[in-house]
Design a protein that fits this description.
Length: 538
């Protein structure tokens, strides 16, 4: 079978149709003006703006809710509430997109194709179908021209933000331009169904040895950038607990296996479902089926290592370890106020120190972790922020299935067993031998180094580099005090000079006072008002 692949525009968003663009720009401007965006953005305001601009932006808002590296946590929490309520695409449009992608008639590919959709969203619509060989499948079809519409809308949002002078950011809340850039990057990935197909295949490979986990098999032969064909998985949605109990399932067993598999995805695979809400999880024939793998989180080896250490630090109340994790894991510019960071980390650990492992909620802990990092200007990696949202979601699912399941305990148990599995006695002995060798070598060198150091000091060549950490704020306060004193001295000097000038008969005069003296008194008055106002204000 032949099919023609359309080249999608994955570069910068372009305008499509001047007349349509102008009317759409006016529409977007009206929405932004209606919500008074020039005065700043609040979480609720951003949610309302996305809802008013259109359903496509609702979908992007839902995706952005997982990006705490872009948006503060309060914005992410608000965007989670977005719900897509979209009218189904007319079947004629679905037919047209499929024929356009395959270059042939629909009945030449599918034996049956249900014209009533299983679900309709802002970007795509899903239909049940049967292939010519009898295989039952679901077909995810992208809305016609949706990428062009989104490209135009994001370009117009940039223009609107410039017109309303919000392009550079909105105070201390969010950088509007950065959000738009991220929206466009997310849109391109979300609209390329080959990415989702690759995700599903990778997930299936990584979990091939887990007997109780499955995901839809991809029909690669029929999958394009705009049409995704995959195995039909019915089953029961994981939050339909009454149905599961009716069929004899043990909810606690489902919950434990779900938690263990999710921990495996994070700790072992570094490839996890970033949005594990109940709609993406089914129970079929005793297996947990992950049915939507469009949004996946990925972790580097460095990220995984720090996650393990972070859980350990919280469990053991190790402030220094957690502080080092924040500094090493994140990216920051400028100086860090280490004493303040230590106090913040100490407060966080103290908050959880009185709780047992069974009372800990990893999603909430991660949000507190991000709040500390953000307050110190430390940017966390994308994968870690997606993990935070995913963990919150999976813990919510577990709470409904079996409230007594503790996700943190399962993660710690998994990490301990993984450590034992990875433990290599030969390697450990070799590393220890190397450490002893290098340490003994350094011990031998210590007397020589001390001798060289003594000689330097005796010759007056020794120097100390001293940095008082946390001294910036007091020094700034002293600097302001000195500036005020200098201003007072200058003001007193001006008053004295003006008074001396007034004793002369210098011309010209104003109100019988020499003009130069009058100007001096006036300047001194202004300076005095500024000083008094500043003192009163602070």
């Amino acid at each position: 079978m032949l099919r023609k692949q359309k080249k999608s525009n994955t570069s910068e968003p372009l305008e499509h149709g001047k007349k349509g663009s102008k009317s759409r720009l006016l529409e977007i401007l009206k929405v932004l003006i209606k919500h008074d965006i020039a005065k700043g953005i609040t979480p609720v305001k951003l949610k309302l703006i996305l809802e008013d601009i259109g359903p496509t932006f609702v979908k992007i808002g839902q995706i952005m809710s997982m990006r705490q590296d872009i948006l503060p946590s309060e914005y992410c929490d608000e965007l989670v509430k977005l719900r897509t309520d979209v009218k189904p695409i007319p079947f004629e449009e679905i037919y047209e997109v499929i024929e356009d992608e395959y270059g042939t008639k629909l009945h030449e590919i599918f034996a049956t194709f249900d014209d009533v959709p299983l679900g309709s969203a802002s970007i795509a619509q899903v239909h049940a179908a049967t292939l010519l060989d009898g295989t039952q499948v679901v077909v995810k079809v992208q809305r016609k021209g949706i990428q062009s519409v989104m490209a135009r809308d994001i370009t117009l949002l940039r223009k609107a933000s410039k017109i309303l002078k919000i392009a550079g950011g909105t105070g201390d809340t969010i950088d509007f331009n950065r959000v738009l850039d991220e929206m466009w990057a997310v849109t391109q990935e979300e609209m390329n169904f080959l990415v989702e197909a690759a995700n599903a295949e990778k997930f299936a490979y990584l979990n091939k040895d887990i007997t109780y986990v499955e995901c839809p098999a991809i029909e690669r032969k029929y999958t394009t950038t705009r049409v995704l064909v995959m195995e039909y998985i019915d089953g029961i949605q994981i939050d339909e607990t009454d149905k599961l109990i009716e069929l004899g399932y043990d909810l606690n067993e489902i919950g434990v296996k779900l938690a263990e598999n999710y921990v495996k995805q994070v700790i072992e695979d570094s490839f996890f479902q970033a949005d594990p809400h109940p709609g993406n999880l089914r129970i079929r024939e005793g297996k947990i089926a992950w049915i939507d793998l469009g949004m996946m989180g990925q972790l580097t080896e460095k990220d995984r290592s720090f996650i393990r250490d972070g859980v350990k630090a919280i469990a053991e109340h190790d402030i220094f370890l957690l502080q080092n994790i924040i500094l090493n894991l994140g990216d920051y510019k400028g100086k860090i106020n280490h004493p303040k960071l230590y106090i913040d980390v100490d407060d966080m650990i103290t908050k959880y120190s009185t709780k047992s492992l069974g009372e800990l909620n990893l999603g909430v802990i991660l949000q507190d972790f991000f709040a500390i990092a953000k307050s110190h200007g430390i940017k966390m990696p994308k994968g870690i922020t997606m993990l935070s949202r995913g963990t919150l979601t999976i813990e919510g699912v577990l709470l409904k299935l079996s409230p007594q399941i503790n996700f943190v305990q399962i993660m710690i148990n998994h990490m301990n067993s993984q450590s034992l599995k990875d433990y290599d006695i030969k390697k450990q002995l070799l590393d220890m031998g190397n450490l002893v060798y290098h340490s003994s070598k350094k011990i031998v060198e210590i007397p020589i180094q001390l001798s060289d150091l003594m000689k330097m000091f005796l010759k007056g060549q020794g120097k100390f580099n001293l940095e008082l950490i946390g001294s910036e704020e007091p020094l700034k306060a002293i600097d302001k005090m000195v500036n005020k004193l200098i201003l007072c001295i200058i003001n007193a000097a001006i008053l004295m000079a003006s008074s001396l000038i007034c004793t002369t008969n210098m011309n010209p005069k104003v109100l019988g006072i020499p003009l130069l003296g009058f100007l001096g008194y006036f300047t001194a008055l202004i300076l005095s008002i500024i000083l008094i106002w500043d003192i009163k204000r602070k």
